[in-house]
User: Fold this.
Amino acid sequence: MSIYTTLQSLGITLPEAATPAAAYLPFVQSGDLLFVSGHISKRDGRVLAGQLGRELDTAQGRQAARGVAIDLMGTLHAACGDLRRVRRIVKLLGLVNSTPDYTEQHLVINGASELFGEVFGPAGQHARSAFGVAQLPMGAAVEIELIAQLQD
Amino acid sequence: MSIYTTLQSLGITLPEAATPAAAYLPFVQSGDLLFVSGHISKRDGRVLAGQLGRELDTAQGRQAARGVAIDLMGTLHAACGDLRRVRRIVKLLGLVNSTPDYTEQHLVINGASELFGEVFGPAGQHARSAFGVAQLPMGAAVEIELIAQLQD
Amino acid sequence: MSIYTTLQSLGITLPEAATPAAAYLPFVQSGDLLFVSGHISKRDGRVLAGQLGRELDTAQGRQAARGVAIDLMGTLHAACGDLRRVRRIVKLLGLVNSTPDYTEQHLVINGASELFGEVFGPAGQHARSAFGVAQLPMGAAVEIELIAQLQD
Assistant:
């Protein structure tokens, strides 16, 4: 099953590529590595804000992380033209907006990690780090940065 | 206009390369990628400390981030001998010392991102992540880590 | 003196490679770069938890970071078959579970950085960033992510 068929069967529509901000780019390629900027959690085009352990629980955080993964795939599609050019999802850096007592960042970021596995299969299996940050831009619940390896 | 002329026109003097710490190096090259260690904010050679949302406001944070970018350029110059060997600023990781309620980390790190664009032009446009950390070494306000691609 | 002799002389036994989690991998190789997932601090196979500035002091944090470095070496050994295939420890990302007032993250992560230098010699000297995070998965005291360059 192709990546796009899998996305369709999961009911996922990729978003348009994010409009580049003034000061930086959504991605930069160097050799065959694609460095994708941190994407923050959104819902219906607006920032999905909140701190885990205060306004949001782990299930909500997982959903937020899954949404970020979909946005990252939209950016990968924009960067590559075709997601089949993604040879490997190499690494995620998963940042979770956390109170000083919230300790389930790994479960939150699983919402993104599992979707990459479902959509890309073995090529979607990646290294990663997940941790709790004091805050995120615009109060976002989750931010994820990604490195992918592309076909030459 | 060359990079050094641009720096001069902006009134920027690059600092001497940071003295390597005992336990780690200011940069390591691997292939054509240069991995530059996190640089913390300084003023007049001393740590520029303070937490955003407590001791410092966004404008002060922007200035701190701009100062870190200048220090990073000093390290890039030391690593390369000549900044024209920088083919691309690939990625910044921008850490902002933040209270649990401060949400303008992106505006703070713009102080660095915009300077890379001004000085390096299109080669200075980069991917990045910006987020709020609970604290930084020696209480620094900002820490930025960088990956650059060098000419072969 | 070989790497394994050095480890023996330091009384260090490398752990078995971590069992891969369901959602992600302990490491991914891309070209000659090995991206190693964040490893959290453990003692006797259980999470070594606690926040610096609250339950743990800097000396205890250093020990925790040294332990993470040993676990990372176990993963490097599993990834490479032989640690002599590690051409260079390129970069560490050192995350310290910190109260909003704890500012010695660099001293904590030195516990890992210094061990890499002792065990690998010049090949162990690396770039790095160290910073304080609001929390870590399962309340771990320290988490460290690593990039290494391998022999072709």
Observations:
- The first strand of chain B starts at residue 27 and ends at 30.
- Chain B has a mean pLDDT of 95.
- The radius of gyration of chain B is 15 Å.
- Chain B has one domain: 43-150.
